[in-house]
Specification:
Strand content: 15-25%
Number of strands: 17
Number of domains: 2
CATH architecture of the largest domain: 3-Layer(aba) Sandwich
Helix content: 25-40%
Shape: globular
Radius of gyration: 21 Å
Largest sheet: 7 strands, mixed
Structural class: alpha/beta
Low-confidence stretches: none
């Protein structure tokens, strides 16, 4: 007989690095989830921009079960058909010539930063090792990537940190220009900061970074872990900007919920990563690759990508209407279905409170820092689910304002 599980078990058994919601989801379908008590939630969180096709999508189930019936894993001493097919899909759809598979966005960014340093060391010498990143960025939780992420709260407790990483102000080209020089091997940037508050890059900022990297022989890395695979209404966000990076990292939505990540690279730079220079036990696993291939083939279509833009309109029109009534937010911003609602100064620091009230109303949302409520729903969420979800969000906003002291 299976053991009865409760939310309190988390506090007793799990390392306390998370503070999960008080309910435990047990079943999902499309953009809806049900908890242990049978309560229904509409999912605007999307597993933090992961569940691009929602929950229990038939094509994903089929891809996983078909591959599971064949074989699960061999390690990197062998290749497999699903990984090669997925690599070709990514190459055909992007600027890339080569792909490295891993298990997460952090690993993809780790690989990108390592590649950039190795390329610079091989071509120019060990003096060229500087990395320029941006304040309020988020690139993962490994020691290298948490240092590149410009949020000291995530890195300061783990010092000493990897050296020669400096942080400019996001969307401030002059700030970046002051740090990028001939000793810089790479610039890593999110085309839209996700964890940093859902802040899209200015086109001129990304164009300027491309020019600075070209001038100083530095690689331009786009972290598209959160913005990639259709999230913004283009397959990858760099396509909005007509700025092509040298390296691109992708994960999250790539597997639609199955852990997978990838580093995409031009041949010139990928060639320095020779046998033994980097690796991973599970990267390119046939189960992950099969699922990701199915996800990618569905999302990389005009129907889905244009549908994201339509859904963004549904969200923004209604959110603007809600804000006109309650005057909670300074700004509603984002691209596609990565949307942030920044609280006014009077309500600073209370995004979590709104997300908790939303959950009580049967809606799962995210936050991006203490001041931004974030939405990252499935790319194929229905109009009915958007409408009902925003009805619930409006009730949460109303309850929040009723509980705020004058």
């Amino acid at each position: 007989m299976s053991q009865s599980i409760t939310r309190q078990d988390f506090d007793q058994w799990m390392m306390p690095v998370y503070a999960p919601a008080p309910f435990i989801p047990v079943r999902g379908e499309g953009s809806r989830l049900w908890d242990q008590q049978g309560k229904e939630y509409i999912d605007f969180a999307g597993g933090i921009a992961v569940n691009a096709l929602g929950h229990a999508h038939p094509a994903m189930i089929q891809a996983l079960t078909e591959q599971a019936g064949k074989f699960w894993h061999t390690g990197n001493g062998y290749t497999n058909e699903p990984a090669l097919r997925l690599a070709k899909q990514l190459i055909d759809a992007t600027f890339a010539d080569r792909v490295f598979f891993c298990n997460s966005g952090a690993e993809a960014n780790e690989a990108a930063l390592k590649l950039a340093r190795k390329y610079a060391h091989d071509k120019f010498g060990s003096h060229k090792s500087g990395i320029v990143a941006f304040k309020n960025a988020f690139h993962g939780r490994t020691l290298f990537t948490v240092t590149a992420g410009g949020q000291p709260a995530y890195s300061q407790d783990f010092a000493p940190l990897p050296p020669d990483i400096r942080h400019a102000v996001y969307n401030d080209l002059a700030s970046a220009s002051a740090l990028i020089d001939d000793g810089t091997c790479a610039v890593i940037v999110e085309p839209m900061q996700g964890e940093g508050g859902v802040v899209p890059a200015d086109p001129a900022f990304l164009r300027g970074l491309r020019e600075l990297c070209d001038r100083h022989d530095a690689l331009l890395i786009f972290d598209e872990v959160q913005t990639g695979v259709g999230r913004t209404g283009e397959l990858y966000a760099y396509m909005h900007y007509s700025v092509t990076p040298d390296l691109l990292t992708t994960a999250k939505a790539l597997g639609g919920g199955f852990p997978v990540g990838a580093l995409l690279a031009k041949d010139t730079y990928a060639s320095v990563m020779t046998v033994g220079t980097h690796g991973t036990t599970y990267g390119g696993n046939p189960l992950a690759s099969a699922v990701a291939g199915a996800v990618f083939s569905i999302i990389n279509t005009p129907q889905v990508l244009n549908g994201v833009k339509q859904r963004q309109q549904w969200f923004t029109e209604r959110l603007l209407s809600i804000n006109a009534r309650y005057s909670l937010f300074n700004e509603i911003r984002g691209l596609g279905l990565l949307i942030g609602c920044e609280l006014k100064a009077a309500y600073a620091g209370k995004a979590k409170q709104i997300s908790q009230l939303a959950a009580e109303e049967g809606l799962m949302v995210l936050i991006a820092g203490a001041n931004v409520v974030r939405f990252a729903p499935a790319l194929i969420i229905t109009e009915e689910e958007v409408t009902h979800g925003l009805d619930r969000f409006e009730r949460a906003c109303e309850r929040f304002l009723a509980g705020v002291s004058p």
